[in-house]
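Narrative summary of target 7.
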Amino acid sequence: VGREGVVLRTLDGGDRWQAIVPPTTHDLNAVAIGRRRAVAVGAQGAFWTSADGGVSWRPWKGAGEAVHFDSLLAISFSPSRKTGMAVGDHQQILRSVDGGESWTEIRPRMP
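Modeled conformation, tokenized:
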């Protein structure tokens, strides 16, 4: 992932890469693979999911609705690919416990 929504994918372990139609014009900062979907996050709260190996992308239905984000900076899944975490500006944290199907905002407690 990269500037202006660039997404690349490989089917042969990285020998050759294919450009995918960008899901957004916002910069994308990170991508992670969950149990059944890939998730890309980025600038201005970009949060996109793919259920077909990165061929097509859809905005996460919760992005921009119940939860507002500035920029999402990183995303990762546990080795089991069931639990995922995404972090962003201003202490924003999202968690998935179902492989990226749904996400919940976690509000850190401040002393």
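The radius of gyration is 14 Å.
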